[in-house]
Amino acid sequence: MLSLTYFPLSPPLTTTPTPTLSPPPPLLLRLHHRTVSRLLCSTAQNVAIDDVVGGRVEEDDVVRLPAGMRREAMPEHVAVIMDGNRRWARTRGLPAVAGYEAGLRALKGMVQLCCRWGIRVLTVFAFSSDNWLRPKVEVGFLMRLLERGMKGEVNNFMRDNIRFSCIGDPSKLPDPVKELITYAEERTKHNSGLQLIVAVSYSGKYDIVQACQSIALKVKDGVIEPEDINEFLIEQELQTNCAEIPNPDLLIRTSGELRVSNFLLWQLAYTELYFTRSHWPDFGETEFLMALRSFQQRQRRYGEGDS
């Protein structure tokens, strides 16, 4: 909805001399928030404007895209398998813990880029259910890193309007980590910007199994009939139902591996896949832009024929 507020000129001049008039106030342009949030300004950068008053764009409400990026072709949900932290450290003669520390910094940078470019959901594979088989010292460090990272980021989530969610099997997680997850989810649940979903102790197979178990209980209790079971119902029981957009548009995997490694198996059915040889700690703005440009060059047909 577009409404204009116009300040008219002074009344018509008469034969009676009148004092010199100052210029009329400028035309003020006010646009409904939902309408303007879809507008694009095609300059060297695409700009989505959330509010315009008197031609001035409020800095906090601007989404700026790099040159060449098309707003309408941006993925809404990006998923990342953050692989290669240990290899990154090994190539530099550093202990594995240094790679994980560097990986956490890379994740913080990725979150900021997603906020800046208007991506709505970012899901990252932080710790697989299979990672519990790693050496206890390494697992213990990863749990402490997760705990420390969450403690330090909740205030930043509030500042940046980020909603935090966690998916996976929490049964093996240390109590302090579980408490922090609950606190972060509760504290940020009303935030309306980027939704950051962190998969911890996660398995795509387990996600589907627990969904089936939940549906089976509903059949047993007479809540639904077996013939009521369909794809939509299964999706509602998957852990990614915490997101408004549960299925990723784009999956990025770093470090050169060409597999999805038990991550979001159902949700990736029509996701565009992008693999890079860069280790996760090296994955920054340049690499992310390469992935996004690749995504914007693809045709997503969802099983339909060529257009």
Automatic annotation (TrEMBL):
Query: Which BP terms does GO give this entry?
Result: plastid membrane organization; polyprenol biosynthetic process; response to cold
Q: Which Gene3D superfamilies match?
A: Decaprenyl diphosphate synthase-like
Taxonomy, superkingdom: Eukaryota
Q: What general EC class does the enzyme of this chain belong to?
A: transferase
Which cofactors are reported in the record for this sequence? Answer: Mg(2+)
Kindly give the PROSITE patterns that the UniProt entry links to this protein: UPP_SYNTHASE
Q: What does the entry list under GO cellular component?
A: chloroplast stroma
Report keywords, A-Z.
Transferase
Name the Pfam families on file.
Prenyltransf
- Offer an example of a GO molecular function term for this protein: magnesium ion binding
- EC assignment: the record states 2.5.1.-
What family is it from? Belongs to the UPP synthase family.
- Put simply, this protein is called Alkyl transferase
